Every structure is written in structure tokens, then in C-alpha cells.
Amino acid sequence: xxxxxxxxxxxxxxxxxxxxxxxxxxxxxxxxxxxxxxxxxxxxxxxxxxxxxxxxxxxxxxxxxxxxxxxxxxxxxxxxxxxxxxxxxxxxxxxxxxxxxxxxxxxxxxxxxxxxxxxxxxxxxxxxxxxxxxxxxxxxxxxxxxxxxxxxxxxxxxxxxxxxxxxxxxxxxxxxxxxxxxxxxxxxxxxxxxxxxxxxxxxxxxxxxxxxxxxxxxxxxxxxxxxxxxxxxxxxxxxxxxxxxxxxxxxxxxxxxxxxxxxxxxxxxxxxxxxxxxxxxxxxxxxxxxxxxxxxxxxxxxxxxxxxxxxxxxxxxx
Amino acid sequence: xxxxxxxxxxxxxxxxxxxxxxxxxxxxxxxxxxxxxxxxxxxxxxxxxxxxxxxxxxxxxxxxxxxxxxxxxxxxxxxxxxxxxxxxxxxxxxxxxxxxxxxxxxxxxxxxxxxxxxxxxxxxxxxxxxxxxxxxxxxxxxxxxxxxxxxxxxxxxxxxxxxxxxxxxxxxxxxxxxxxxxxxxxxxxxxxxxxxxxxxxxxxxxxxxxxxxxxxxxxxxxxxxxxxxxxxxxxxxxxxxxxxxxxxxxxxxxxxxxxxxxxxxxxxxxxxxxxxxxxxxxxxxxxxxxxxxxxxxxxxxxxxxxxxxxxxxxxxxxxxxxxxxxxxxxxxxxxxxxxxxxxxxxxxxxxxxxxxxxxxxxxxxxxxxxxxxxxxxxxxxxxxxxxxxxxxxxxxxxxxxxxxxxxxxxxxxxxxxxxxxxxxxxxxxxxx
Lengths: 318, 432
Known about the structure:
The complex is a heterodimer of chains A (about 325) and B (about 425).
Chain A: E1 3-13, E2 18-21, E3 27-28, E4 33-38, E5 44-46, H1 49-52, H2 59-62, E6 69-71, E7 76-80, E8 86-89, E9 94-99, E10 105-108, E11 113-117, E12 122-127, E13 131-142, E14 145-148, E15 151-157, E16 178-181, H3 188-196, E17 201-207, H4 209-216, E18 225-226, E19 234-240, H5 247-256, E20 260-264, E21 269-272, E22 287-290, E23 297-300, E24 311-313
Parallel strand pairs in A: 14-18, 15-16, 16-17, 17-19
Antiparallel strand pairs in A: 1-13, 2-4, 3-12, 4-11, 5-10, 6-9, 7-8, 9-10, 12-13, 13-21, 14-19, 15-20, 20-21, 22-23, 22-24
Chain B: E1 14-19, H1 26-36, E2 39-45, H2 52-62, E3 66-70, H3 77-91, E4 99-103, H4 107-117, E5 122-125, H5 131-145, H6 153-168, E6 172-177, E7 181-187, E8 193-199, H7 207-214, H8 216-220, H9 229-240, H10 250-273, H11 277-281, E9 285-290, H12 297-308, E10 314-320, E11 323-332, E12 338-345, E13 348-355, E14 359-362, E15 366-372, E16 375-382, E17 386-390, H13 402-415, H14 425-431
Parallel strand pairs in B: 1-2, 1-3, 3-4, 4-5, 6-9, 9-10, 11-17
Antiparallel strand pairs in B: 6-7, 7-8, 10-11, 12-13, 12-15, 14-17, 15-16
């Protein structure tokens, strides 16, 4: 099965340095901020336990502030004594991010803030420094590889047929904030133009591997790469190079046009936040065939005779 | 070349190394990790130029299952702080939390390191410079990989190498390339064994990792015709995400051969970095398994000759259906202006001239004796490929420009009959 309406749990990994997070049990909608934080750079070390004269394990007792919190230069972080007080103070204006096992305190300058948004409507089921997970019901289509940050927006068709490549000429600023559906291929020109026009994300059968390297760097691989920086969001559904979409994948995409949707890059899934009965999907997964030279993937009919050597169902574990 | 080639991989174990005292324990640690067959996802050293936040983010992104901390003495505690704190900050909330394998033989250092690495669960191991330390660490890591009822591929290969070495009374090197790993296992008839099982080097699901590690040009250089980088990259990416794919034309077969070359060459370089490279390659019998057995005999033999850079003559065989099938005799010749190799086959000696940088296959089959200037005298068993007389200077210098590269590589392939062609059903039936 390609498309499926179900209850999904989506884990949003957080960068280090989360300052605030949605609480477990909170209801969120796709696009809502579930965590914020700042980039942690070279830290300034404030002597903690040794400075205030307590063992590292007892430092917690005398802390005035706890990570993660903004502090001003000279702010008291921990203090002991009354008349002859001993205090640990912040060496800079910044954010107290970490306390070491020796009881020292790391203060990082606040140089760049980040936010992580939910990709589905639902309830927060996990919230800690590493991830915020949201559980909810929606449509989902498992793709092959996602690149870039998560994206949320209205689903829009960028092609008229599932075997058409996404033409850069069809992308303009009117598509700002949308998740654009390409057909068989989205080349680097289309990806960069879409990003420049403010398109939220791109979904298509395939993207050229060389184009992905151009956009995301030479160390990009076939497993995808989720990131938090300002880059395009790309979801390859079937393969690399060129891969026309099977009808069972394409037709629901057409039916969902205009619905709220999101791309969760690390799990390479496209979520569509539409009611269960908005699309009629086939229970059988369409078949895909790898080209003889391995340069592309195409849908095949089960009646094709003879079947090519390398055939897999769309939902095979790849 | 089917899915069964991937069996026995075990549970993947991702390992990060925190090396507070670089240079002292690095080789011992690498030997352990290579033998244990785990995937090294990150190695942080004390001199790492990245700042605290970047180190912590690298550890979080790596999501290690195990963090190996080789620690020689308390003197390195200050450096360990610089690595342990990013670990606590980056992976403190990871689920499940990584386990720490602390390899140390000094009680004071253990106490200090354990305190620094709290709250992670710490498994104590003896110093990695000792045989006991290495054995304990390898068996602990393999326990983590074990899946009930499944024999680990690495262990099966080690059994094979040991069995063949004892049976043939010859130092045996087993070379295995699967979709997701590459293994080199050398066994002595008397029982000594060294092994390097490298994850993320293979011709299937790890194909893209081979390219990431070796570089696209190094993979491309083994293809005996012109191919542009974007096209090759697409084939590699699709191959990496298509489990069990079989090459069905010469283009995909050539990519498979090229990937096998680089996977083995990089496994050898990992072994060299761990200090076991020369020991591994000193074998008189090379046994090919895994995906290499699906290549034509000449192709598999050429891959072994090119990538292993054997220091002395060796018989090359493949292992399939419980038996060894001889493929070729590899005869490396020390670089000279010109060499003469004396080959004795069926009792008849003959002399073969090999030009500098020359490579050709002598059509002999069965037991042969080789000797000559620049050749270590040896008794070998040749197969259908014959005796491959290799006078090429090492490391192999392959030009980047297609105009120079293609004729050279084509000549090498043609000289041993290894050109990447898919046999037609008719020719396959005829050869059978």
C-alpha cells in the first residue's frame, strides 16, 4: 500500500541547545512551534562547585538558575554562605546551557535562534532535550529520501501528468509557502528556483543525484539528510534520476491538491492533513522496476511480460 | 548476488570513539572495532578543532549505540573532560541512551573516567593494548550485534578462513564483499587469525557510502569507458536503495565491479590504519566470497589483484556451494624495466617476459610453480583465468582524463578477459 490513513507518531529531532519545548500532552497543529533554542557555540566556563565550595553532586542545592536560561554578565549562577558569600557568576551575556560532571557551568553566547515546528496535527507524546514527538491521525505517503528541513504548506500540483518533469518556468512567487508536487523529476534548477520563490517544499518521483549534491553538498547520500538550516526541502518518492509516479501514488496527490500537508524529512514521509474520505486509495502497492543501467526507476504493470529483473513493490523496505 | 548475501549481518551497532589520548591507543581501538564488525559513526579526538556545541551536535547526529573510550592513564583526564561533556550534553536525552565501553587498566583512571561519563552506563574492559582487552571488547561488541538463531556473517567467514587454512596448510585470506559490508579475514594453519569487517563498504546498500568515502572519481576510474559523473552517481544512488538488485547490463555490471574495487581497497586501508594491513595481505591463498562469486572468474580475480595489492604470489579461488573453486594464480612482479617469470606447468618450464607496467594472463590451469627475478618463488593453483602476471607499479596510477584512462583500464580488463559484459543466455549455456 502506498497511501495510508492512520495514526502516526512523528519524532522531531532537536538540535542541541533547546530552550523551550511543548509539554507532553499538549495539542498542536501542523506548523505550530514545538521547540525553540539557540545555536550552541564555543562556551565560556564559569567555575561552579569549586568556586562556591561544594561538591559537584551538591551543586544543585545552591544553584540560583538552572539550564537552559538566559543570563547577563555578572549574574549569580550559584551561591553559598550569608555574611561571607561565595558566588559563581556568568562571565558573559548569554545562555546557561550545561553543567559539567565536575560542577562547572557552560554559558554560550546567543548567536542564532532556531525553531522546530510540528509536521502533523496531534498530541505531544514525548518532549525532552533530544526530540519532541507528536502523535495524530492523517494521510501519509512513505517516500525514499528526504533532504533539508521539515516543510509545512498547502499541497499544489506543479505538473499536469505523473511522468512530466517539474519545469522551473512553472514556479513563481505565487507558490510561496506551498508544497509543490513534481512528476518524474525535479532538477537542481527547479529546486533552487522554488526555494528562491519561497516554495515550502518539493515532492516528486526523483531528483538527479548530481543536482542534490549541487544543492545540499558533495557529502549527500542516498539515504537523505534532514537539516535545520535554510535550505530547500526535497522529498524523492521513488528513486534518483527520473522516476514517473505510479497512478496509485499520483491520483491521490491530485485529489489532495489544496489540502494542508507537510514533509517530514528524516522519515522521508509526506503527510496530508485531510479527512479520511478525501481520497480513495488502492490497497495493493504499485510495482516499480529499476532500469537495466540502474539510472532510473519506472512503474510497471503486474501484467507486463516478461517482468524486468529488478522489480519491487512501492512499499518494499528499501 | 541475491538477498541471502546480506544474511548474518546481525544487529547494526553504531559506535563513536572518544579518544582522549590520541596516538597511544588508536591502533588497538581500531583493531577491536574492525574485528567486531561495528560501524564507526564518529571519532572525536582530544585535539579536535570543533568547539563544544559542534562536538555535541556531531554526537547527537551520530546517534551512537556504543561509545568506546580507550583510556590509558589519569594523565588524560583533562582531555577526556573535553570529550565527555559534549557526550553528556549531546546524547544525555538519547533513547535508548548509548552504553559506554571504557577500556582502561588503571584503577585511578577508571574512577575518574567513570565519574566524568556519568550518567551513562559504563562497561569496564581491560586496556586495549593487551590481548585480553581486545578479546573482551570484541566479544562484548559482538554480543550486542547478535540476533538469536543467526550466525553472524563475520563469524562464519572467520570459521571458513580457519577451516581452509588448516585444510590447505596455507595462510589464507578470505575476501568477502556483500551489499553492506566488506570483510578481510586472514588465518594461519597454526590457528592465528586477524580480521577486518568493515561496515558501510559494499556494492549494494552501502554503494553510496563507498562513493562518499572514496570519491566519485576513484570509483569512476575503474569503468573501462567514458561515463559522466552525474550519470554514475544516479546509478550508485539507485543501487544503494534497491536491495537485491542484480546487474542486467554492462553499465550496471561495470558499476558493481568498480564499487567492489574501492570497497576492498578501503577495507585494506582501514586495516593498514589499524596496524594489521601487511599481516592481512601476506597470504598464499585468497578465497573470494559474497558478491564477488557472482562476477565472472576473470572479473573477480582482477578485482582481487587490483585492490589487494598482494605482496607475493597467491592462488585465487572462490568459495561456493561448500567447495573451493580455483580461479587464477596471481603473480605480482617487483617493478623493473622488464621481468622474466619462470612458470612450470605440467612438468614443462617456460619463461614469460613481462614488461614494466604490463599485465597479462597466461593460459595455464592446475598446479604451477613460479619463480624469477622480482618474483617470490611459489607453488600455486591456477583456474580458468590462468596465471595473472602483474608487472604494474604500485600504487596503481590511473589517469583522470578519459582519453588516457579508458585505453589503459580497457587494456587491463581485456588482458585477463574481464571486460564487463553480461553473458547472453546462449553463451552461458555453452560455457556450462
